[in-house]
Specification:
The structure is a single chain. By secondary structure, the chain is of the alpha+beta class. Helices cover 51% and strands 21% of the residues.
Length: 177
């Protein structure tokens, strides 16, 4: 489509996040299979508890690793076009289109060293209901705390927050009709 802006994932951060999840998976396996060594040097002396911690660590990190690898297999994280925003930047959420005419405000939020773009819409319940159960829960909490279900994390995007905020606001003003 003509006049579209494509924002990709940051390759260095992408690799870093995948390595972190791989390391946590390996740590979980170490806890499971080397619990005899750990009970001699660790504060917790219960072998079964250490193995349980290892299993939980391994399962969660492997699930997140799979989600992030799936997300990063996409080349584009965000597309801004004349109809709205196509958001594929989340490992949990489905791909979604946010139409310019539904947007009522766009704000930047800095929270604990991370920056998010909050997109306020006139029909938040629609965006909450169209997702899977985990996404629905996350969107409900976003709405509860920020008054919008739509937040775009810039952690893994290949753009600066001010640049993205400017592009979003300019396109919103241009196409909101």
């Amino acid at each position: 489509m003509k006049n579209e802006i494509r924002i990709t994932f940051n390759s260095k951060r992408k690799i870093g996040i995948i390595i972190i999840f791989l390391l946590f998976s390996l740590l979980g396996l170490f806890f499971i299979f080397q619990s005899n060594i750990l009970i001699t040097i660790w504060i917790i002396k219960n072998k079964l508890f250490i193995q349980f911690l290892g299993l939980i660590t391994f399962l969660l990190s492997t699930i997140f690793l799979a989600l992030f690898v799936n997300m990063y297999s996409r080349k584009t994280a965000l597309i801004l076009d004349s109809e709205g925003i196509i958001d594929t930047s989340s490992p949990i959420r489905n791909t979604r289109r946010i139409r310019w005419q539904n947007i009522v405000d766009i704000q930047k939020l800095e929270l604990s060293g991370s920056t998010f773009i909050l997109v306020f819409v006139d029909n938040p319940q629609q965006y909450i209901n169209e997702e899977n159960k985990l996404s629905k829960w996350i969107n409900k909490n976003n709405y509860k705390f920020y008054r919008t279900p739509i937040s775009i994390s810039l952690v893994s995007l290949n753009t600066y927050v001010d640049t993205l905020e400017k592009q979003l606001k300019e396109n919103w003003k241009k196409y909101k009709i």
